[in-house]
TrEMBL record, chain A:
The lineage of its organism: Bacteria, Bacillati, Actinomycetota, Actinomycetes, Kitasatosporales. It is a multi-pass membrane protein. The keyword Nucleotide-binding does not apply. The chain crosses the membrane at residues 21-45, 94-114, 209-228, 248-269. Residues 86-266 form the ABC transmembrane type-1 domain. Belongs to the binding-protein-dependent transport system permease family. PROSITE patterns: ABC_TM1. Keywords: Cell membrane, Membrane, Transmembrane, Transmembrane helix, Transport. CDD domains: TM_PBP2 (cd06261). PANTHER family: ALIPHATIC SULFONATES TRANSPORT PERMEASE PROTEIN SSUC-RELATED (PTHR30151:SF38), ALKANE SULFONATE ABC TRANSPORTER-RELATED, MEMBRANE SUBUNIT (PTHR30151). It comes from the Bacteria. This is Nitrate ABC transporter permease.
Automatic annotation (TrEMBL), chain B:
Gene3D superfamilies: P-loop containing nucleotide triphosphate hydrolases. The keyword Nucleotide-binding applies. Residues 272-294 have a biased composition (Low complexity). It comes from Streptomyces lasiicapitis. This is ABC transporter. PROSITE patterns: ABC_TRANSPORTER_1 (PS00211), ABC_TRANSPORTER_2 (PS50893). InterPro entries: AAA+_ATPase, ABC_transporter-like_ATP-bd, ABC_transporter-like_CS, ABC_transporter_ATP-bind, P-loop_NTPase. Keywords: ATP-binding, Nucleotide-binding, Transport. Residues 256-294 are annotated as: Disordered. Pfam families: ABC_tran. Residues 4-237 form the ABC transporter domain. It comes from the Bacteria.
Length: 284, 294
């Protein structure tokens, strides 16, 4: 408080402006400071320990830049290596995610609307959803071989179930009053589906897609450990096998960055598209 | 031909031993152009009755005809305003789009739709809110949007289920007058369900009083009030005071009987909390607020 008012007096600014600025600065600090402290501690510990398995964060950061982000600014910073390592990985992950998401939404809509089939639909969905995804890998290997079809298929398979389940729940929890309103006004079933059921379910669908976005990266790395000749997962496992510890850590950090960035983009898109839902849930 | 004709309507929820009779042997008619209010305590089956008339729910026995069509599925020329405006409007559509939405399925030309939407919003005083989203409006305004949506549809029969139960007293008075004005102007038949005795008398040409467990018609009475009504002067007319007391007495006598039977009625037949008068009813403009729960 004392700090606040003296700062206000010093700068001769209205107190609420100072408070607002301090609030924003404080918010940023709360996000950044703990992370920064953790990195510094790691830096200090790694530097002190000199373990070959734990390079310092600074060294890792330098290596990440060198490998993937050292192209001239004019060429868009990203190196050819980035396109070679991360490109195929992103295509596989996002392709599988999109396919699985689409399948999950379609199946979820059908299963959710078809009330009498709930008893047949729920148990197998719960079973497949609970199945640890790596367990299905041998089947995919047999059927699709060790190519990209296997990888994209595995990612799509993994992404289907959470999206399906969320969509299903979303459709089943559409406001009964909204359905009754639609029926009372003789809205054709097809229009009901497109204009009411799907929009009402979108928040749940988006939640499912957000969960599976990170799942798609997990499955991507997993699938690239298996007989791949490209991709970040392949880079990571090769680095580990050849004891290229710094490269291994660099790949881990890049994977983290990619995941973080994808999530950020998704949340931003969701915020824009589902403005109405955010306002409703904020009100309680 | 009556606009609405209900014959010996019975509705049971559930089957077998757990079946619960919500309505038994209900018969009444609503003349074309009439404003009939249906009043009764919470849980007496008002919503059930309305949904059977709207064809949203099949009756166990008996018939409900709307404009001569047996209500098997929703009859044509009918619109419904539900109690829960915040759930019956579509939050992802702007106000104008909400009103327009049902019109699109009527196969009207764009110009005609646009003009209907504008007129309906105009008549509920929301002409300037067409580009807002429902959640940006107050509760009373949202219910006006729901009314505008029904008006733009131009139904011959309008069903309203406790539409003003969850708005504050001031707003409620305004919405009641709006309902009467719309009825006068459009000449449509309105079936208005409420648990508020004052409201049932103030609004209607005729009041149908329901009893509880199982729901049925206690009595019906014509409302002998001037066509043009006013929140303050009409509510202090001796005739208004007499009629609302009469309705209240009927309901009290009936619920006294039911209680005298020795608590045979289930717990939810007594006073479900959902439709008890909210705190906002306590400052209603009437001298002695009365609800059917009394
Ligand atoms: N879907 C339902 N299933 C079983 N019982 C119901 C259902 N809807 C209403 N009821 C019961 O039927 C009776 C009448 O309910 P309702 O028509 O909602 O009354 P009101 O609208 O007058 O408050 C109540 O006892 C209620 O518990
Ligand atoms: Mg009700």
């Amino acid at each position: 408080m004392a700090v606040l008012s003296s700062a206000a007096a010093a700068a001769r600014l209205p107190e609420h402006v100072v408070r607002r600025v301090m609030g924003i600065v404080g918010g940023v600090l709360i996000r950044v400071v703990p992370a920064l402290v953790a990195v510094l501690l790691w830096q200090w510990a790694a530097a002190a320990e000199q373990s070959p398995y734990f390079p310092t964060p600074f060294d890792i950061a330098v290596r990440v830049r060198e490998l993937w982000f050292s192209a001239p600014l004019g060429d868009g910073v990203l190196t050819d290596r980035f396109l070679r390592d991360a490109g195929p990985s992103l295509l596989r992950a996002l392709g599988g995610w999109a396919l699985g998401g689409a399948a999950g939404v379609l199946l979820g809509l059908v299963a959710g609307q078809w009330k009498r089939a709930a008893g047949y639909i729920d148990p197998p969905v719960d079973f497949l959803r609970s199945l640890p995804k790596p367990a299905i890998v041998p089947v995919f290997l047999l059927v699709f071989g060790a190519g990209d079809l296997m990888r994209v298929g595995l990612i799509a398979f993994g992404c289907t179930w959470p999206v399906l389940l969320n969509t299903l729940q979303g459709v089943r929890t559409v406001e009964p009053v909204q359905r009754e309103t639609a029926r009372a006004f003789h809205i054709p079933v097809r229009v009901q589906l497109v204009r009411i059921i799907i929009p009402a379910t979108l928040p749940k669908i988006a939640a499912g897609l957000r969960i599976t976005l990170s799942l798609s990266l997990i499955l991507m790395v997993l699938s690239e450990w298996l007989l791949a000749d490209s991709g970040l997962g392949n880079f990571l496992i090769t680095a580990q096998r050849t004891f290229d510890i710094l490269d291994m850590w660099a790949a881990i950090v890049l994977l983290g960055l990619v995941g973080y960035l994808l999530n950020l983009l998704f949340v931003a898109a969701e915020k824009r598209l589902l403005r109405w839902h955010r306002h409703l849930s904020a009100r309680g | 031909m009556s606009a609405v004709e209900v014959r010996d309507l019975t509705k049971e929820y559930g089957k077998g031993a757990s079946a619960q009779t919500a309505l038994r042997g209900v018969s009444f008619e609503v003349a074309e152009g009439e404003l009939l209010s249906v009043v009764g305590p919470s849980g007496c089956g008002k919503t059930t009755l309305l949904k059977c008339v709207a064809g949203l729910m099949p009756a166990t026995s008996g018939t409900a005809r709307v404009l001569g069509q047996v209500a098997d599925g929703v009859p044509d020329g009918l619109a419904v305003v539900f109690q829960d405006y915040s759930r019956s409007l579509f939050p992802w559509m702007r106000v104008g789009r909400n009103v327009d939405f049902p019109l699109r399925s009527l196969g009207l030309r764009t110009a005609e739709r646009r003009e209907r939407v504008a007129r309906a919003l105009e008549s509920v005083g929301l002409a300037d809110k067409a580009d807002r989203y429902p959640w940006q409006l107050s509760g009373g305004m949202q219910q006006r949007v729901a009314i505008a949506r029904a008006l733009a549809y131009r139904p011959r029969v309008l069903l309203m289920d406790e539409p003003f139960a969850s708005v504050d007293a001031q707003t409620r008075a305004g919405l009641e007058d709006l309902t009467r004005r719309v009825h006068q102007e459009s000449g449509m038949t309105i079936l208005f369900v409420t648990h508020d005795i004052d409201e049932s008398v103030y609004l209607a040409d005729r009041v149908l009083v329901l009893r509880r467990s199982p729901g049925g018609v206690l009595t019906e009475m014509d409302v002998e009030l001037p066509v043009v009504r006013d929140q303050i002067t009409t509510r202090s007319l001796p005739e208004f005071v007499r009629q609302r007391s009469l309705v209240a007495q009927h309901i009290r006598a009936a619920s006294g009987e039911a209680d005298g039977v020795g608590g045979a009625a289930g717990p939810d037949a007594n006073t479900p909390a959902d439709a008890r008068p909210g705190p906002s009813d306590s400052d209603a403009p009437s001298p002695q607020p009365a609800t059917a729960n009394g």
